[in-house]
Amino acid sequence: MSISLRGSRERLVIVCTDRGAGIEPSVIDSIFERFDRAPASRNHGGLGLGLYVAREIARAHGGDVTVESSVGSGSTFNFWLPRREEK
Questions:
Q1: Model-level pTM greater than 0.90?
Q2: Sheet of 74-82: strands edge to edge?
Q3: What is the pLDDT of residues 67-84, one digit of tens each?
Q4: Can you tell me the distance from the alpha carbon of 79 to that of 1, in angstroms, rounded to the nearest whole number?
Q5: CA distance 65 to 69
Q6: Of the residues 8, 19, 67, 72, which has the maximum number of CB atoms within 10 A of its CB?
Q7: What are the boundaries of each domain within the chain?
Q8: CA nearest neighbour of 51 among 83, 74, 82, 29
Q9: pLDDT digits (tens, 9 = 90+) for 3-54
Q10: Cα(first)–Cα(last) distance of the chain, in Å?
Q11: For the residues of 14-42, what is the DSSP string, one character each?
Q12: Separation between Cα atoms, residue 38 and residue 17, nearest integer Å
C-alpha cells in the first residue's frame, strides 16, 4: 500500500493505493454503504463501517471519498477536503 498527499489551491487529497484483488465494478457503489463490504476471497475482519464513516466525515467538511479500481490490479481511494483560507 502507498499513501500520498496532493494539494491544489482548492483542495487537499490523500491518495491510498493498493495492489490487492481490486473491486468488481458492480459493487463499487455499495462499498460505501453501512455494514457492506466488497466480497473477498478470504475472510477479513471488520464491520463494514470504515469507508462509510470516512465518506461521511469527508462530506461533512465539504469533501468526498472516491475509488478507482481494476479487478486483479488493486484500488486507489481518494479522500479529499476543500482548502479554507485561514482567518
A1: no
A2: 2-7, 11-17, 74-82, 64-70
A3: 999 999 999 999 999 998
A4: 15
A5: 13
A6: 67
A7: 2-82
A8: 29
A9: 999 999 999 999 999 999 999 999 898 899 988 666 554 556 677 899 999 9
A10: 36
A11: EEEE--SS---GGGTGGGGSTT-----SS
A12: 16
CATH topology of domain 2-82: Heat Shock Protein 90 (3.30.565)
| Contact residues for 40 (Cβ-Cβ < 8 A; gap 6+) | 21
Cα radius of gyration (the chain): 14
